[in-house]
Amino acid sequence: MLIIDGKKVSLDLKNELKTSVESCHASTGKVPGLTVIIVGHDPASQVYVRNKAKTCKEIGMISTVIEMAADTTEKHLIDTIHELNNDPTVHGILVQQPLPKQIDEFAVTLAIDPSKDVDGFHPENLGRLVMGHLDKCFVSCTPYGILELLGRYNIETRGKHCVVVGRSNIVGKPMANLMLQKLEATNCTVTICHSATKNIPFYTQQADILIAAIGKAGFITADMVKPGAVVIDVGINRIEDASTKSGYRLVGDVDYEGVSAVASAMTPVPGGVGPMTIAMLLKNTLQSFQRINGL
């Protein structure tokens, strides 16, 4: 079985982005800038934001983190976003989720200028994705990362049956729409399964490409997978494990041990889709810089 190594691909991509950023600086005297806003003190969010900032600096981008208190008002957050929209040194704006209850996440998403929405969550970017205008939008980072993995591993997709398990706005819906597009690494027949789907194995057993993003540890088992299928595991779940120092370990939505005996190619967890998300965020930020500067 082929292991689709997201850690390696993300490292290759970051090296390519570093070269591109250096080229941008040489031609314009400027570099891309990403600003991340974090509201509150969610530990997982803080780790993720630190990793984004660290990777930005590694490839030569400007990274700014704005930390706000958990009781920040929606108005204050949106006012800050409007300031960033008008700041020519900021090319990407990301508001880390989850947000506190007093803040409407959709209102915050709408406040971000679509040309700086490097998370790809704004309705304008999602609409352009659905219409196939991928050269004029930003694609959500996790689906975009999966597309990059499929392309770099030369996974045949044209005319294949892709089954996406999960319908979130972050992964499932944009992933399904992406796999429908007439692109080299997509062009699939697509089925979406979710929590209300009856007899999910009936659909997953037909998948040439199976993308699991349902948020349940080990949900996809070997008997649910067509022999020879390509399996992309988006899930990151913590399960208790007394044998580890932390007392837990990370597993995906797929039973890796069982499914790896059936699949032809598969992403591991950790080290599969996860590392690609930040890499694609930075790729989107570079694209924003290039569009704004006419490069």
Morphology: globular
Give the second-level CATH assignment, the architecture of the largest domain.
Answer: 3-Layer(aba) Sandwich
Task: Work out the radius of gyration.
Answer: 19 Å
SS elements, strand count? 11
Q: Uncertain segments of ≥5 residues (pLDDT<50)?
A: none
Description:
There is one protein chain. The N and C termini lie far apart (41 Å). Helix 6 packs across helix 7 and helix 6 crosses helix 10. This protein folds into 2 domains: 86 residues, Leucine Dehydrogenase, chain A, domain 1 (Rossmann fold, 3-Layer(aba) Sandwich); 135 residues, Rossmann fold (3-Layer(aba) Sandwich), CATH 3.40.50. It is built from 10 helices and 11 strands. Helix 2 links the parallel strand 2 and strand 3.
